[in-house]
Amino acid sequence: DLLNLDSGAVLNFDLKTKQITITMPDGTKKVIEMKPDEKLEDAIPGIEWARYSVKKNGKELDPSQTADLLNLDSGAVLNFDLKTKQITITMPDGTKKVIEMKPDEKLEDAIPGIEWARYSVKKNGKELDPSQTADLLNLDS
């Protein structure tokens, strides 16, 4: 009687949303609402998932999974980071080294100790500007 339900009343149930805080690589934060059965990749439109990894408490999450499967509760904090690319460098003496670069990282910053004035760096015969980022240089893993 407290609910004022009459015979034949129709009740609709819906899953409660969870408030999740996301932190982007630049430090900006945003609170989103997710239903337990909603996939993370669907809850955050406009994210280029191929460019980002997302972690909760240091553990990488699969964005194609639902909030329930990812054990996301209200108040969870997700940290986004740019995925790194593995780049192989061949020096004039033939030695090779594999480095990790973020898409927004400059080539000259990714390889410390190089005297850039002494070297040219090329990809497929084309000279690259080491002051450019991995994205601008089209460097892929």
Q: What can you see in these coordinates?
A:
The model has no long low-confidence stretch (mean pLDDT 89). The N and C termini lie far apart (65 Å). The protein is rod-shaped and about 85 Å long. It has a 5-stranded mixed beta sheet, with no helix packed on it. The chain has a two-stranded antiparallel sheet with strand order 6-7. A two-stranded antiparallel ribbon has the order 8-9. It is mainly beta and 141 residues long. The chain contains 2 helices and 9 strands. Helices cover 6% and strands 30% of the residues. The chain has helices at 40-43, 107-110; strands at residues 18-23, 29-34, 52-56, 59-60, 77-82, 85-90, 96-101, 121-123, 126-128. β1 and β2 form a beta hairpin.
A few lines on this structure:
The protein is mostly beta strands and 141 residues long. The chain is built from two helices and nine strands, in the order E-E-H-E-E-E-E-E-H-E-E. 6% of the residues lie in helices and 30% in strands.
Topology:
Layout lengths: L17 E6 L5 E6 L5 H4 L8 E5 L2 E2 L16 E6 L2 E6 L5 E6 L5 H4 L10 E3 L2 E3 L13
Parallel strand pairs: 1-5
Antiparallel strand pairs: 1-2, 3-4, 3-5, 6-7, 8-9
Name the descriptors:
two-stranded antiparallel sheet; mainly beta; 141 residues; 9 strands
Describe the sheet with the most strands: 5 strands, mixed
Rg calc = 23 Å
Helix content: under 10%
- What is the number of helical segments per DSSP (H or I, 4+ residues)? 2
Dominant shape: rod-shaped
Tell me what portion of residues adopts beta-strand conformation: 25-35%
Q: Write down the secondary-structure element order.
A: EEHEEEEEHEE
Q: Give the termini separation.
A: 65 Å
Sheet/helix structural class: mainly beta
- Total number of β-strand segments? 9
* Mean residue pLDDT: 89
Strand order of the largest sheet: 2-1-5-3-4
Low-confidence segments, ≥5 residues, pLDDT <50? none
> Which quaternary structure do these chains form?
single chain
